[in-house]
Amino acid sequence: MANVSSSGDGTGAVFALIIAINDYIARDEYPPLRGAVKDAQEFERYLRDPRANKGLEVPGSNIMVLTNGTATRANIVSAIKSHFLENPNIPDHGETTMILFYAGHGNRITATDNIISTDGKVEAIAPVDERTIDAHGNYVYAIPDYVLGWLLREISEKKGPNMTLIFDSCFSGGINREVGMARSGHSVSCPVPLELDDYLWKGKNQTDTAMSYSMWSPSATSHVLLAACRQDETAYEFDYGNNLIHGRFTKELITWLRRVPLENTSYAELLNHLPVWPGQNPQCCGSKKDRLIFNRNYPRAGRQALALTPQTSDAEIPGSFRVDIGTVEGVVPGTEFAIHAGNNSFLCTLVADSVRIEHAILVTKNKQPVTIPEGSRAVVSDWKNNAMVLHVHLPPDFPYTSDLFRTTDITYLPKGHRYVQAQSLSTADILVRAEGREIVIERLTSTMIECQRETRFSLKGNTTHLPTVVDGIAHFNYFLERHSRSDLLEDVTLEMYRLVGMYPGRRPDLSTGNMIVNNKVLLTAQADAMYGFAIRNPSSVDLFPYLFFFDPDMYTIKCWYSPASVHDAAPLKGDGMVTIGMGSEPAFQFPETLPPGVSSSFAFLKLFVSTQPLDLGWIQQTTPFDPGFEGPGQLSGGPEVLTFEPTWRGLKVVLTLTV
User: Fold this and answer.
1) Which residue, 220, 247, 403, 503, has fewest beta-carbon neighbours within 10 Å?
2) What is the radius of gyration, based on Cα positions, of the chain?
């Protein structure tokens, strides 16, 4: 789903580091592979091939390759720094595409006592000299994901957040020769001493907010990871005949990279094209997985564009299509979607015929089959959901009434918007008034009255932007209040802790305990205070959790945690826990001071949990006060007739920050 429009042909300057290892020195622990180096050669060929041959046409000088004996631990870390972080040919804070490709063995290593891990393990890649003694007499360890993640974070901050990782390896620690060669070691690697790599982060900023250094983190902002399998699965290589041995993930990935239109295909959509094999589910991780492939932009069809998937010929309604948006997001039977081709031209309107928690089936209004080109996208054009309508009260002297409502009929719903004029102040959700050059939003719902009564912004002379602002407020309010009762999920809890320790070993301060009491948190502004979260699931059912941060000052919504992808196994296991912002993940910080004259500030945490994977990333929004804000989808009135399935729940927590 998209946030901004895109133009161009998909990629600009590209720099790539390719690492592949067939022959490890410790052959007893890492059996030889036959296809990793060939994978690297095939990927390099894809990078260098001209656009006419569906390649990226990357100059050879922009590509660095380490294979077999050159892919030592020291060389890999050094190459990541020299080819990306310290490369003078990559402009700082620019839009250069950076690609790190790895094919070889992976492993899971025991986490040291200071590292938070739900199962006591961290992922690692195996350099060619792992489990050997180097020239200085030192044991050579694997490269853990928190080391790679820290380097990626530094690259993102200096060069720009346009990094793609492609890993054809696995971390399960098992091996299976019945189907094909697995890319994992025979045994678990030794724990890596924290002091071995702490020169990378010692003395550097330890207080970054809402960014993950873990390579596998679903919320990582520094990179997108395309991985051959889940963390607990196995990546295989196969002999395709004529001595063509490849990792099956790499072979399929390159096939589809050459096939799909890069200028209008996101990472997540690319992953959906790849096969899913027994015991090997390819993964796409990172908060930017909805960006265009190798590009900083989003698909062209618009801010909340959705991939459109044709249903099979044996579908209940021939010629129907699926979109991965459902009841949680507010879709109801009758919700209308505008369909756009890859060049952004409008094709037709489809209507939601059936809606489930995680997807909707779309048909034409007369249910007749229609031909829609591959790569087309769906954008909500009319929600048809009365529950999403915001009721707005305006004082008689409000100078911009005609910008919001072009008629005096207060039952009129402005076309393409999601608000109506309240019949009285008592029935309103917000009051909008003018005070000098400022617009004042007074909140009238029970949640907001208890917290922060009003916020202000300036239109800066652009009164036509006011309807988009109110649409953004409607979107914010709807998802803040979104809830569903489920006895099955009722006991799931969100906990918040102040943290002690340093990266990568931050842990809860058990002396202060869980800070959330009765769904409320009271914080005192303090410099250097860092926080993390735990989601506990006492039920026997595995769940998918999603944590959002709602800022009522600016009406922004940010996702702080979601599963890696809709193909991922449920991360919140029955009778288990998920941690956020602890260990090798950056902790969360809140302002250490408040503006003069302000004694307190408020925000909200909203936790969604579901028994099925959901694609909720598009709920996020930037501030609607920004003139560049595009606004959520359109809406017109209509009853919300769907009875929700008891498979998800929303939990709201109020954060209060005082000086």
Assistant:
1) 403
2) 26
What does the angle CA 389 – CA 653 – CA 531 come to, to the nearest 5 degrees? 135
Q: What is the pLDDT of residues 145-172, one digit of tens each?
A: 888 888 998 999 899 989 999 999 876 4
Nearest to 226 by CA among 186, 184, 281: 281
Residue carrying the six token digits 């002091």: 195
Between strands 163-168 and 97-103, the pairing is parallel
- Chain CA centroid to CA 285, Å: 7
Helix (H) / strand (E) containing 449: helix 446-450
Give residue-wise pLDDT tens across range 497-547: 999 887 777 889 989 999 999 999 998 888 788 899 999 999 999 999 999
Q: How far is the C-alpha of 23 from the C-alpha of 104, rounded, in Å?
A: 9
Q: Is 515:562 a contact under the CB 8 Å cutoff? A: no
First to last CA, the chain: 39
Average pLDDT, the chain: 82
What are 490's two structure tokens? 């009722």
Question: If phi over 0 gives left and psi between -120 and 50 gives alpha, with beta otherwise, what is residue 358?
Answer: alpha
The distance of Cα 644 from the centroid of its chain, to the nearest Å, equals 25
The alpha carbon of residue 370 and the mean position of all alpha carbons in its chain are separated, in whole angstroms, by: 32
- Residues contacting residue 96 through CB under 8 Å, at least 6 positions apart: 12, 13, 14, 15, 90, 159, 160, 162
Query: What stretch of H or E contains 559?
Result: strand 556-561
Go through 610-623 and write b for each residue having 16 or more CB atoms within 10 A of its CB, e for each that does not: bbbbbbbbbbbbbb
CA distance 456 to 434: 9
d(C-alpha 581, C-alpha 214), whole Å: 10
Q: How far apart are CA 474 and CA 392, in angstroms?
A: 10
What would the two tokens of residue 140 be?
């050579």
Instruction: Compute the distance between CA of residue 269 and CA of residue 263 in angstroms, rounded to an integer.
Output: 12
Structural contact between residues 235 and 32, judged by C-beta atoms closer than 8 angstroms = no
Burial 418-443 (b: 16+ CB within 10 A, else e): bbbbbeeeeebbbbbbeeeeebebbb
Q: What is the DSSP string of 598-638?
A: --EEEEEEEEEEESS----GGG-B--TTSTT----------
In what side-by-side order are the strands of the sheet with 245-247? 181-182, 236-239, 245-247
- Backbone φ, ψ for residue 64 (5° rounding): -115, 135
- What is the Cα–Cα distance from 302 to 324, expressed in whole angstroms? 16
